[in-house]
TrEMBL record:
This is Nitrogenase iron-molybdenum cofactor biosynthesis protein NifE. One of its GO terms (biological process) is protein-containing complex assembly. It comes from the Bacteria. Belongs to the NifD/NifK/NifE/NifN family. GO terms for molecular function: nitrogenase activity. It comes from Dysgonomonas capnocytophagoides. Pathway: Cofactor biosynthesis; Fe-Mo cofactor biosynthesis.
Length: 445
C-alpha cells in the first residue's frame, strides 16, 4: 500500500506481516492532514462537562464556535456549560491587547450567572499578542471570591493530547481546596467519563448496587465542589486514559490516591471494571454484589445479543478513535457480535497501547497511529471493510466510500457504555450494516 507518507512507515503495522512494532505517540508529520485536533480543543473538551462552571474562550469567535457543545455531555442539574462564551477578539485587540476585554467579560458573566468557578481558555492569537491572562484571572478571582482558572491552551503548542494535560493541570488547582462533602469509607472518583448520553448515570447505578460511592466524576456531569473534594476518595478509576492519566498520576503524587485503568465498553471490560474495583476494597460482600450484578445483567443480555451475532457473522469493521483503550474494547465488543476488526487506529495511543491492541487483533488487521483521510480510505479499500466506527471527521470518509458508519466519539447521543450500551451498540451495528440503502449505493472499491 503506497498511499502513505514514507516518514510514517513506523506508525503503520499489519499484524502477521511486519516484524517491527508500531511506534505511537509521535508528533503529527507535516503534510499528513492529521485527524487530530488542536491543544485548545483538547483542553476544552475535557473541562467542558463541568456543568456549574463558567467557560470563557479568550480569542476570536471562531474558536468558541468550533468547540461549542462539542460533547454529548449531559447534566443532572445546571447547564451553564452548554452556553459558549467568548471575548470575541478582533483586529483592534490584536493591536492594543485584549486584557481589558477579558476583565470586563469575566465581571459581566460572573455577575449574571453566578458560577462556582470560571475557566478562561487562552487561544492562539492570545499567545501571539501576549495578553497576561493569568494576571487578569487572579485579579478577578480575588474580587469575585471564586476560583478563576487560566487554561493556557494556545492551539499551536501541539495536539489535542497536549490540551488534555493542560486541562488536568487546571483541575489539579481546584482539587484539595474543600473538605466539606460527606464521604463513604468506600468512595471512588471516575476520571475520564464524560456522561455522553447519560452513561455516567448507568455506571453510578452499578456502583451503588455494589455499595460504592462516586465522590467526583471528572468531568462528566461534573460539579466544582465535588472536584474540590476529590482528594478524599480512596481510589481513582480512569476510564479515558488518554485524557486523564496525567491527573491520576498527579493525585497519586500529591494525595497518595492509587489509580486503575478501566474501560466501560463491552461486556468483558465492563465486568472487569466492576470486579477490579471490588477487589481493591478487599470486601467479600462487595465482590459478591459485583458477581450478582454481572450475573443478573448477562442473564438478560447474552440471549438478546445472539440474533445480532448470527446476522453479522463475517462482517468486517474499521475502527479509528481517539484513545487506545476505547479501540481495544471495541475490538472485543465487535468479536462478541460476530464482526471482525480489519483496521484499528487511534489518535492518542502510545507504543505500549499498540502492543496491547496488536495482541487481541487477528492476523491481517492494519494498526495505524495518527492517520489521515487518504490513508484511512486506502485501508478501507484494501481490507473491504463493511463498517467504519469513528467520530465526526471519519463519517464523510465512510459515506464517500459507500459503507456504513457508527459514531463512537464524544458527539454521539446514544449510550454505548455498560451492559445496556452493549445492546445499543449491537443494534446500531446491525441496523447500519443491514440498511437497505446500501443496495442503491455503489462502493468505490
Amino acid at each position: 500500500m503506497a498511499g502513505f507518507l514514507k516518514d510514517r512507515e513506523k506508525q503503520i503495522f499489519t499484524k502477521g506481516g511486519n516484524s517491527q512494532s508500531l511506534v505511537g505517540g509521535k508528533p503529527s508529520l507535516a503534510g499528513s492532514v492529521s485527524q487530530r485536533a488542536c491543544v485548545f480543543c483538547g483542553s476544552r473538551v475535557v473541562l467542558y462537562p463541568i456543568a456549574d462552571a463558567l467557560h470563557l474562550v479568550h480569542g476570536p469567535i471562531g474558536c468558541a464556535s468550533y468547540t461549542w457543545d462539542i460533547r454529548g455531555a449531559m447534566s443532572s442539574g445546571p447547564e451553564l456549560h452548554r452556553s459558549s462564551f467568548s471575548t470575541d477578539l478582533r483586529e483592534k485587540h490584536v493591536i492594543f491587547g485584549g486584557e481589558k476585554q477579558l476583565y470586563q467579560a469575566l465581571h459581566e458573566l460572573i455577575d449574571k450567572y453566578h458560577p462556582k468557578a470560571a475557566f478562561v481558555y487562552s487561544t492562539c492569537i492570545v499567545g501571539v499578542i501576549g495578553d497576561d491572562v493569568q494576571s487578569v484571572c487572579k485579579r478577578v478571582a480575588k474580587e469575585k471570591d471564586i476560583p478563576v482558572i487560566a487554561v493556557m491552551a494556545e492551539g499551536f503548542q501541539g495536539s489535542k493530547k497536549d490540551g488534555y494535560k493542560i486541562a488536568c493541570d487546571a483541575m489539579a488547582s481546584l482539587i484539595g481546596t474543600d473538605n466539606s462533602k460527606e464521604i463513604s469509607t468506600m468512595s471512588i472518583n471516575i476520571l475520564g467519563d464524560f456522561n455522553l448520553a447519560g452513561e455516567l448515570w448507568m455506571l453510578t447505578e452499578y456502583y451503588k448496587r455494589m455499595g460504592i460511592q462516586i465522590l467526583a466524576s471528572i468531568t462528566g456531569d461534573g460539579r466544582v465542589k465535588d472536584i474540590q473534594n476529590a482528594h478524599r476518595a480512596s481510589l481513582n478509576v480512569v476510564q479515558c486514559s488518554g485524557s486523564m492519566m496525567h491527573l491520576a498520576k498527579t493525585m497519586q503524587e500529591q494525595y497518595g490516591i492509587p489509580f486503575m485503568k478501566v474501560s466501560y465498553f463491552g461486556i468483558e471490560d465492563m465486568s472487569d471494571a466492576l470486579y477490579e474495583v471490588a477487589k481493591f476494597f478487599k470486601s467479600e460482600e462487595t465482590m459478591d454484589r459485583a458477581r450478582d450484578l454481572v450475573k443478573d445483567e448477562l442473564t438478560t443480555l447474552l440471549p438478546t445479543l445472539e440474533p445480532y451475532k448470527v446476522a453479522l457473522q463475517g462482517k468486517k469493521a474499521a475502527i479509528y478513535v481517539g484513545g487506545a483503550f476505547k479501540a481495544i474494547s471495541l475490538v472485543k465488543a465487535l468479536r462478541l457480535i460476530g464482526v471482525k476488526t480489519v483496521i484499528a487506529g487511534t489518535q492518542t495511543g502510545n507504543t505500549e497501547d499498540y502492543k496491547l491492541l496488536e495482541a487481541i487483533c487477528d492476523d491481517g488487521c492494519i494498526l495505524v497511529d495518527d492517520s489521515n483521510p487518504v490513508e484511512l480510505s486506502e485501508f478501507v479499500k484494501q481490507t473491504g471493510a463493511d463498517l467504519f466506527i469513528g467520530g465526526v471527521k471519519e463519517r464523510p470518509i465512510a459515506y464517500k466510500l459507500g459503507i456504513g458508519f457508527c459514531d463512537h466519539n464524544h458527539e454521539r447521543k446514544l449510550a454505548l457504555a455498560g451492559y445496556e450500551g452493549m445492546l445499543n451498540f449491537a443494534k446500531e451495528v446491525y441496523e447500519t450494516v443491514s440498511s437497505p440503502v446500501w443496495q442503491f449505493v455503489k462502493r468505490s472499491f
